[in-house]
Amino acid sequence: NDDAIFMPESLAETPLTSVIIQGSGNLSANYYSGSVYDIRNGVIPGLFENCKNLKEITTKNCSLPPYMFGLNGTEETDIVFNYSNIGLEQYAFYKCAFLTEFDMSECHAIEGGNNFAFCENLKSVNLGNYDSDSFSRLVRCFYNCTSLETVISKYALYSFPQEVFYNCYNLENLFLPETTEQLTYAKDSFYGASKMAEQFIENNLVTAE
């Protein structure tokens, strides 16, 4: 793209109000043209940190790298977030203030752990097509999501990974299909979680060795 220019290290002082983040090509640099960003070989950590004018983010057909929205979290809470066919690397939404709900049906891959760690306004998650095997690898995925209330899965989950709901003390609803399989969890999967989660453990799961 002849109009593309090299991406700056920080966008905090720009007047951007809307950005589209998408994947294309396999070039060795990050570029932007107007408000459309192509993720081609990673992205600068904290790129959208404290973008005071940003009101809408659209991500599609790409994998979001660590700390995409700021090492300290995007401060704005009223940003409109649209997403489709995205992948999440570890810490992709770390301390992301504007994320209040998320549907994993729009994710083609989730790698590593801590993907939503410290998303303290995240209230509802639909695990979408993530079955028990995929879910068991999401270590610390919702670590310290203190507002998380509801998790929905259309698959029975047989194994809960380490610290997956650590300190999710408002977690009240775990909507899972009934199963006769023996369920396991790491000792700290629900550490600091709500009484309802503790009751769920007591009635349905056995501690992993």
Describe the structure.
There is one protein chain. With 209 residues, the protein is mostly beta strands. The chain contains two helices and 14 strands; from the N terminus they run βββββββββαββββαβ. Residues 1-8 and 25-33 have low confidence and may be disordered.
Lay out the secondary structure.
Layout: E1 5-6, E2 18-23, E3 31-33, E4 36-39, E5 56-64, E6 80-88, E7 101-103, E8 107-110, E9 124-126, H1 132-135, E10 150-152, E11 159-160, E12 173-175, E13 183-185, H2 195-204, E14 205-207
Parallel strand pairs: 2-4, 2-5, 5-6, 6-8, 7-9, 9-10, 10-12, 11-13, 13-14
Antiparallel strand pairs: 1-3, 3-4
* Unreliable spans: 1-8, 25-33
Radius of gyration: 18 Å
**Tally of DSSP helical segments:** 2
Rounded mean pLDDT is 77
Oligomer: single chain
Q: How much of the polypeptide forms β-strand, as a percent range?
A: 25-35%
Strand count, sense and closure of the main sheet? 7 strands, mixed
Helix % is under 10%
| Structural class label | mainly beta
What is the ordering of alpha helices and beta strands? EEEEEEEEEHEEEEHE
**Main sheet strand line-up:** 1-3-4-2-5-6-8
Shape: elongated
Strands, count: 14
Brief summary of the model shown:
By secondary structure, this protein is mainly β. It contains two helices and 14 strands, in the order βββββββββαββββαβ.
Give short descriptive properties of this protein.
single chain; 209 residues; mainly beta; 4-stranded parallel beta sheet; 2 helices; 14 strands; 27% strand; elongated
